[in-house]
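Lay summary. Proteins are chains of building blocks that fold into shapes, and those shapes determine what they do. In this project we predict the shape from the chain. Here is one chain we studied, written as its sequence of building blocks.
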Amino acid sequence: PATLPLALRLLIEGGAVHAAMAAMVVVFALALSVAAYNVARSLERAIRLQLELSRRTADLSLANTRLEAEISERRAAEDQLRQAQKMEALGQLTGGIAHDFNNLLTVVIGHIELAQQWLPNQAQAGAMLGSALVAAERGARLTQGLLAFARRQRLDPKPIDVPAIVDRVRELLRQTIGPGIRLVIEAEDALGPAEADPNQLELSILNLALNARDAMPDGGTLMIRSERRSVGPAERRELPPGDYVVVAISDTGSGMDKDTLARAFEPFFTTKEAGRGSGLGLSMVQGFAAQSGGAVQIDSALGRGTTVAIWLPRAHGAASERGAPEPTDISEEHAPARILVCDDDRGVLSLVGTVLRDVGYTVWEADDPATALHILEERAPIDLLLTDYAMPTMNGDALIKRASHYQPGIRALLMTGHADALRKGGIAGIPLLKKPFKIGQLTERVSRVLASPAEVRAALHSS
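And here is the predicted shape, written in a compact code that computers can read:
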């Protein structure tokens, strides 16, 4: 546009040369305008492309961020799955080991007790047998710990008064932790009962107290505090919403670093020197809490001690404690009875048969279900069928059902150390004797089942 006045002046002045120059000026002006327009259009397109490129780059960056997050989540999920599969495989292996180990311990403990009674006047032999019995009982507790870790033990949950449980083990705790550690026990008012197995809670508290003692070699303070806590819908995803009783065991010891804390619940992991711990303490506590419908939480750091909190569901009923019956002595006389014992483990079979004959029962032994059924068919009536649960050709439940065809209403007692049967609490309506057992427990249980009328025998199953 700035060239137009020049073109007009050339036209006014006239002449061919001036006219030609004016035309050239106009053409030049038009060319410049077109060029400027094209440049503006190109610049506009370039800006649009740049904006689109920036937008796509941002979208790609966001997509990449999401993809990285999804990859991280997937890796975490895969790690959790592998861990769960490893724990499940270890749990199955534990269950199988516990079954065989319980059979072995039943034979060892039973024969040690028999030897103690047959050698009452030999002090040296008695002391040696006493040491062997203590070791065997430690093996039995180790098996319980394995089953607790695998969540395959039989629990007897009931409404319990947690402060009363803690008070019951107070003196044992003092003896366990020693005089250099101050014991402080506190409980919140109006705590209410928890739903849990009292024996397993006692064992868990003792295990955690031992860990605390070892973390305070130069002394310190061990505190056990019971309090009521609630979980809302958006809290603690590992626990369902509801009311809980929390038992927190705290120490002022050395604490754990991050690596130790990350592995604290791993079975057989321990920072103690060889021979001072099995590494099952925390994993057993975790298994017990999870099987009870609760959880375990650890708070620890180097130099500031450790707190282990056991979360247990709060019970709706009133707390009640049912005392265990006192085992009867093997020398106690019993009413005559005919008992059929079936167990595929020859050691257990021989021990049980010997014990029951010594107290006056008539006993037949069968090392497989087929032999037991043959004896039942030939020797009926039988007052009691005492059978193992896990046997190769037929389990104890099936044997009892088959036996009832030969003798309807036959009394039965199931003895087992098998993890699946213990996890389910046995078979409905059939009393259970858990391996390994002492001979007093065996005779007491047999006596109770024999004395029970048919309509109450099922109730013995839960006792």
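What the prediction tells us: Residues 274-279, 321-333, 455-463 have pLDDT under 50 and may be disordered.
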